[in-house]
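Quick one:
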Amino acid sequence: TCTVEKEYRSILDGSYYYDESVVWLTGLARFDRLYNDEKKYITIMPTWRKYLMSHMDNDTGIWQEKPMFKESAYFNFYNSLINDKRLIETAKKHGYTICFMPHPNIITNIDLFTKNENVKFFTVDDEYRDVYARSNLVLTDYSSAVFDFAYLRKPLLYTQFDKSEFYGGDHVGANGYFQFERDGFGEVAYDYDTTVDLLIEYIENGCVLKDKYRERIDSFFAFNDKNNCQ
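Output:
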């Protein structure tokens, strides 16, 4: 089941060996259960990096980080971001809470990150649907999980400070039909300072989705109703 026309065409025209009889453009069933219940959360939600993991525990299904994980650019970027004084003070001033919810393959190691009383850490027990409902803005890097958040017509930002490394072949991700600069639902930052500046800009402006990105979202999804299950 596909969500957008471009996805549908990429599967039919790609090297997947499926045809129209088994590939359907319906929208995702789970979209019908999305809802809004904003709590003025600014949620930082990066995906994982396979090249920072040593192996997966076959008994638990949990990936174990490499010993150098805490020295990585990935760890230091996000650890700095969730402890950034300028960002935290701006959020507090305007009544927002900074939240942190990394990918499930990282969240089991979330205690490695420096905690402070001003940042809410989500756990494996927090459902994505509820996090999206309560968040006013989400910052991610390359995650497709945030398509659900965009479906709610709320603002997204991307930070891709390690783009060349991420697409260098050591992770599971690869470039596809979705190009962030052309198709993304928000601005793309490529360094730490720009990331903080964009977050602060949106916080100070009430986390309003800009018309440019609203138009992208409206034209992106094949169906914008609550009838995907049907």
